[in-house]
Amino acid sequence: MREVYKNIYLAELPLPNNPLKYLNFYIIKDQGKSMIIDTGFNREDTKEDIMKIFKELNLKPENTILFLTHLHSDHTGLATYLEEMGLTIYASKIDGDLLNNSVEKLDSMWQDTIQQGVWQGLEEDQLDIEDHPGFKFRPTAHINFIPAIPGEYIQIGEYNFEIIDLKGHTPGIVGLYEKEHKILFCGDHILGKITPNITFWGFQYGDILGTYLESLDHVYNMDIDYLFSSHRFLVDDHRERIEELYDHHDKRLDEARKALRKSGRSTVRTVTKQLQWDIKSKNWDEFPKAQKWFAAGEAHAHLEHLRALGEVTMEEEDGVLYYSIKE
């Protein structure tokens, strides 16, 4: 654990067997109210790590806020445990509700994930939702949370954090911006050297990649000296990194266009197999099953963005979606 700014501490919580490796766990310490940001996976060793941090910084659960940037289990897995300890939880209404609808296997979020897999043509991969990292390390019960509403503020000592909307990585991801100190806690919205996964969340959320790019536009214009993101490397220049993310998605969209031109009318799975992935697998059959969910979801988000741009068409046949370049 180290102090990265006055009274702001960073500890690394391991994420075993996960390509992200660890969560950047932030603590804003004050004599009155303190705040922690996100939780790590729902694992016993992560509980022990957090308890050591509470002891070292002399944090009192009843005087500590847990701010959840978004619903993924590496950010929320211990939310139930920490609420039971006495922490007050803030989460966006969208992601908080989705989180509470993901506790049981038959809950709507996992049933929607399975349905999306069918649309994407993943049934032949025989994926089991119990292998999904989000399911394995999720919170064990519903949480009671205060809605984190963009435009409202949370005061911690000398810091007055504005809640800001960062939709894209999830439908309701939020961050914390301290204008005077030029600090942004951005969750997974911007990561250094890692491209945040932008996945298809369902047609009710529209063109989620387009939404993400608009959120990047907003952050690009913000005055930020300290960008505190959730995984591994911290970003020194947020505008330079955003330019790199724009470039990544432009290239990914080109890959999707080329895949459709090569294969013609295609399922999401067919397109996914033709994209370049930073995973050491000889072919799609050796691709880790847990990562197939994320890869197909990302390809699907890019295909839906091309559809929103008017470049491709989509039709459903026998429960599976097919995409084609518009003639």
Automatic annotation (TrEMBL):
SMART domains: Lactamase_B. Residues 22-231 form the Metallo-beta-lactamase domain. InterPro entries: Metallo-B-lactamas, RibonucZ/Hydroxyglut_hydro, Sec-metab_biosynth-thioest, WH-like_DNA-bd_sf. Gene3D superfamilies: Ribonuclease Z/Hydroxyacylglutathione hydrolase-like (3.60.15.10), Winged helix-like DNA-binding domain superfamily/Winged helix DNA-binding domain (1.10.10.10). Pfam families: Lactamase_B. It comes from the Bacteria. This is MBL fold metallo-hydrolase. It comes from Anaerosalibacter massiliensis.
